[in-house]
Amino acid sequence: MDKQKLKTLFWSTFTLSAFTFGGGYVIISLMRSKFVNQLHWLEEEEMLDLIAIAQSSPGVIAVNGAIGVGYKVAGLMGVLVAVLGTVLPPFTIITVISFFYEALAQNPLFDQLLDGMQAGVAAVICLVVWDLLVKLNEKATWLEYVILSLAFIASFVYHLNVVYIILACIALGIGLTFWRKSTSDSEGEVAS
Prior knowledge:
The protein is mainly α. About 85% of the residues lie in helices and about 0% in strands. The chain has 7 helices and no strands. α2 crosses α4, α2 packs across α5 and α6 packs antiparallel against α7. The longest helix is centred in the middle third of the chain and has 45 residues. The relative contact order is 0.10.
């Protein structure tokens, strides 16, 4: 087991988690930057798959993403190290804040701080969406764009619960995979 790699994995997930505000979508973008662009531990396609799995799985997106990255990098020990690095900072911060919550909740400066952080988080989430759309554009067919559009309309216009949208997209993905496999198998038989 490469101890240096585990140490780098821990500190990478720890610092990403400690300095990321705004939820899983923000940390996923930073994980992509760290593990794909800087450390080259994952390929772009692998990271996109991990993001899809992290979003589709129950639980916190950041932890789900850490599980995927940790397993890919160092197996089960990588999962443990990455999850520990991911959950330790928010656990510590929330514990400390809970002691001072009453004082902070009434503080207008703290309110303004949170408003400023929300604006920054919105910008980072827009960047994540843009990056995903650019990557989708490189390999998507018209059918993926139809599914994307229908999912957006179901969420934004009809306010359908995201759980139902994710489950429908999972079912469509599985169905499309089997359909594509059966058509490629039948084309292979015709060519023989």
